[in-house]
User: Which sequence fits this backbone?
């Protein structure tokens, strides 16, 4: 397959990912507005901030395990489009929910789409690009997804008070019905394993084959760092805007801009991380996890300043922006490198299953994290202490990544 065709497929995947992931943080900026609409203001942290993310991510991650298995067996193009439609239909209907129960069901079903396209995306990319190219392309797809998250959150926060919280769900769901149809009609699926040399055909046909994936130590470390690393992100996406508005006295547009800045700087961080990671990989693969682990650990420091920022004043708003920028810049250099590492330590015939496990690990953190924070830590310790506890999980995440310094070079298939 020539470069133009590969770029065409990649651009389509990136655009679809933009709109699919834009849905992820639409609820956070308007947590109080949604709670007031459904009459659950007193329990918003538990019902909206805890329970919905739990079901959203755990259901999505669980179904994605099956989708990942199917990814390694059947047409990925057809399955990709099907999952896009399955995810966007309930996202669209979330904007029309009349009760909390209806909204809860629609959000839970939307998680299937977001969880399902991840193993499909990286299985396709693994067969479009070689080992030396993968960090770069994963970084670009991550950029598209991250821009979707940031812009979706920004739009939801900016129009929530004037046009209502429902409109963003409709606006960001609709385009993918067209883009999915275009993908189905124009994309030719790449041959499985075409970018990997001297690889044997392999199918996961029983539990023994499935269990063999966990014998790869780097896989285990990537899964574990994902669980711990996504807990703080779950707190940012669900609670932080409402925290700065209600607990710290900042205006909703200001709070939305600050948290969107974290996401925006995280996009830059991801680009820098992918660029540096690619350079380090070419020099020596073991330097990639060393770089990622140290940047993650350093990111804990500005995050702590952001969480513990004082009550609103004009001067404090300036410092809040500085803390947000530093947090985003340091904390997101890991993501593209972890995905590239997974591609390089696994066979192209099992990547769908591996990435569904990776996604499930992330979903455990994104689901149980806000649920535990919202239902236990906030209840007993208050929001400030709960969010500081969540931040500490990034330190654990960084330490787990550092352990790959010893495992990744030995298990790297891309060498």
Assistant:
């Amino acid at each position: 397959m020539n470069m133009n065709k590969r770029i065409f497929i990649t651009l389509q995947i990136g655009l679809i990912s933009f709109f699919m992931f834009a849905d992820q943080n639409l609820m956070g900026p308007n947590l109080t507005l949604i709670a007031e609409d459904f009459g659950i203001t007193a329990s918003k942290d538990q019902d909206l901030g805890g329970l919905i993310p739990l079901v959203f991510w755990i259901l999505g991650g669980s179904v994605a395990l099956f989708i990942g298995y199917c990814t390694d067996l059947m047409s990925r193009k057809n399955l990709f489009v099907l999952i896009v439609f399955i995810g966007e239909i309930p996202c669209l209907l979330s904007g029309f929910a009349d009760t909390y129960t209806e909204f809860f069901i629609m959000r839970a079903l939307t998680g299937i789409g977001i969880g399902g396209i991840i193993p499909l995306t990286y299985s396709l990319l693994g067969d479009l690009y070689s080992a030396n190219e993968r960090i770069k392309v994963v970084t670009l797809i991550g950029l598209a997804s991250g821009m979707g998250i940031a812009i979706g959150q920004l739009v939801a926060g900016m129009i929530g008070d004037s046009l209502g919280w429902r409109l963003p769900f409709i606006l960001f769901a609709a385009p993918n019905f067209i883009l999915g149809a275009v993908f189905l009609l124009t994309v030719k699926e790449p041959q499985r394993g075409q970018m990997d040399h001297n690889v044997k055909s392999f199918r996961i046909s029983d539990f023994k084959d499935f269990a063999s994936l966990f014998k790869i130590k780097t896989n285990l470390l990537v899964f574990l760092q994902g669980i711990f690393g996504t807990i703080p992100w779950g707190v940012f996406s669900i609670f932080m805007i409402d925290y700065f508005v209600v607990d710290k006295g900042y205006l909703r547009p200001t709070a939305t801009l600050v948290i969107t800045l974290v996401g925006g700087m995280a996009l830059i961080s991801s680009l820098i991380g992918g660029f540096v990671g690619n350079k380090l990989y070419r020099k020596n693969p073991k330097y990639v996890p060393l770089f990622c682990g140290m940047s993650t650990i350093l990111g804990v420091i500005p995050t702590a300043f952001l969480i513990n920022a004082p009550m609103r004043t004009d001067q404090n708003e300036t410092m809040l922006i500085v803390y947000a920028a530093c947090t985003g810049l340091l904390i997101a250099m890991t993501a593209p490198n972890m995905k590239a590492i997974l591609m390089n330590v696994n066979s192209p015939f099992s990547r769908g299953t591996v990435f569904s496990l990776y996604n499930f690990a992330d979903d455990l953190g994104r689901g149980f994290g806000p649920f535990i924070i919202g239902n236990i830590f906030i209840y007993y310790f208050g929001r400030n202490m709960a969010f500081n506890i969540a931040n500490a999980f990034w330190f654990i995440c960084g330490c787990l990544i550092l352990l790959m310094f010893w495992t990744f070079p030995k298990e790297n298939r891309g060498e």
